[in-house]
């Protein structure tokens, strides 16, 4: 049986998850995973040039995939849009098998050398939520929706990590409050967008958002890249 690149990477990730709670997303954990899998060192480094960092990002991507699959298989038609967003954030957090894996990941991505990777992973998660829920915004709204959701998601994640309430009920209440704040902001923003007096001032932000969005849309259409809109 031929082992594919992705299969080997998943084997490394599965093996590493047993070491991360003790040694973090570190070179020590990566080396232990390579030994556990019996994979040649050169092959392991070819699969994961940055070692633990690549596997930490793969772990995050797996959680995103699980969230999208659950969203697509769940009937959300009776929910208000704010409730669908809350469900998506909840599904994403519930895709985590062990909080310690996330705590260790936050330690890794708080390092200056990896902070950009962590920010990109967070942005992609929030982008997937909006895309899967059918967002079709094209102007500055595309950017602000993802920026505000990034704030909601990151603050809820931090609350969730310290929450020991039954079924994380306090976390879901916190999430509802944060989304209420966002919806109030979106209401005010819509009023500004509908006011013809402000349209000249929005022309430049809308153009800049289009420049940010275009490359990301092009990348999402590349073969092999997850695109929940298809």
TrEMBL record:
Gene Ontology BP term (one): ubiquinone biosynthetic process
Keyword terms, alphabetized: Lipid-binding, Transit peptide, Ubiquinone biosynthesis
Domain COQ9 C-terminal intervals: 116-186
Pfam families the UniProt entry points to: COQ9
UniProt keyword Transcription regulation, yes or no: no
A GO MF label: lipid binding
UniProt KW Transit peptide keyword: yes
Pathway: Cofactor biosynthesis; ubiquinone biosynthesis
Top-level lineage group: Bacteria
Family listed: Belongs to the COQ9 family.
Protein's job: Membrane-associated protein that warps the membrane surface to access and bind aromatic isoprenes with high specificity, including ubiquinone (CoQ) isoprene intermediates and presents them directly to COQ7, therefore facilitating the COQ7-mediated hydroxylase step. Participates in the biosynthesis of coenzyme Q, also named ubiquinone, an essential lipid-soluble electron transporter for aerobic cellular respiration.
PANTHER family: UBIQUINONE BIOSYNTHESIS PROTEIN COQ9, MITOCHONDRIAL
Name of the protein described by the UniProt record: COQ9 C-terminal domain-containing protein
């Amino acid at each position: 049986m031929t082992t594919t690149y992705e299969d080997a990477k998943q084997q490394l990730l599965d093996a590493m998850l047993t070491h991360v709670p003790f040694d973090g997303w570190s070179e020590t954990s990566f080396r232990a995973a390579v030994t556990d899998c019996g994979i040649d060192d050169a092959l392991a480094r070819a699969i994961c040039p940055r070692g633990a960092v690549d596997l930490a990002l793969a772990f995050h991507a797996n959680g995103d995939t699980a969230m999208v699959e659950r969203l697509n298989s769940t009937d959300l038609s009776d929910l208000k849009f704010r409730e669908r967003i809350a469900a998506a954030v909840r599904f994403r957090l519930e895709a985590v098998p062990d909080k310690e894996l996330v705590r260790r990941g936050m330690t890794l991505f708080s390092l200056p050398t990896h902070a950009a990777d962590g920010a990109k992973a967070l942005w992609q998660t929030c982008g997937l939520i909006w895309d899967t829920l059918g967002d079709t915004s094209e102007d500055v709204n595309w950017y602000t929706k993802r920026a505000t959701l990034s704030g909601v998601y990151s603050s809820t994640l931090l609350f969730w990590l310290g929450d020991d309430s039954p079924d994380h009920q306090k976390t879901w209440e916190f999430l509802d409050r944060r989304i209420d704040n966002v919806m109030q902001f979106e209401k005010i923003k819509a009023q500004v967008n509908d006011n013809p007096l402000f349209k000249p001032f929005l022309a430049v932000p809308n153009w800049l958002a289009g420049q940010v969005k275009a490359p990301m849309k092009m990348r999402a259409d590349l073969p092999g890249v997850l695109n929940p809109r298809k």
